[in-house]
Automatic annotation (TrEMBL):
Gene3D superfamilies: lambda repressor-like DNA-binding domains. It comes from the Bacteria. Pfam families: HTH_3. InterPro entries: Cro/C1-type_HTH, Lambda_DNA-bd_dom_sf. PROSITE patterns: HTH_CROC1. One of its GO terms (molecular function) is DNA binding. This is Putative transcriptional regulator, XRE family. Residues 45-80 form the HTH cro/C1-type domain. Coiled coil: none annotated.
Length: 138
């Protein structure tokens, strides 16, 4: 590993692959799918290089590659650099994961990003809170 690489890049990539499914119920991302999506965005990378980033054998992707990966997964590129951004994204991903497990919110065919779903959930929770207060006041 290069000493100038990104700390825990492999762990962050693995987390994205394990928690963010592809759109339209197409299953989980694979190296092959991500490489293809990156190519569609004009970012060239081999399956082997992406695999090396995921398993920690490499930790120094170009800014263009890192930006492309962030775009594919719908997360801000700051996820890879900024601890606060990483925490925020991980909280959103955990919320989405809980929703998937419980079946609490079905948005198939929706164009909402993970962040949009979290915002929608927050709005629903706020409405529930307000309505709960109204019921208590009656």
């Amino acid at each position: 590993m290069d000493s100038a690489g990104l700390p825990d890049l492999a762990g962050k990539l693995q987390h994205l692959f394990k928690t963010i499914p592809q759109d339209a119920g197409r299953g989980w991302y694979t190296n092959e799918v991500v490489v293809r999506e990156l190519a569609e965005r004009g970012v060239a990378v081999t399956i082997q290089h992406l695999s090396n980033l995921r398993n920690g054998r490499r930790d120094n992707p170009s800014a263009r590659l890192l930006g492309g990966i962030a775009e594919v997964f719908g997360v801000p590129v700051g996820y890879f650099f900024d601890r606060d951004e990483e925490r925020r994204v991980n909280q959103e991903l955990e919320t989405l994961s809980q929703l998937r497990r419980t079946g609490g919110l079905r948005l198939r065919g929706s164009d909402l990003s993970p962040e949009g779903v979290v915002q929608l959930l927050a709005a629903i929770q706020e409405v529930n809170r307000i309505e709960g207060q109204r019921r208590e006041g009656d």
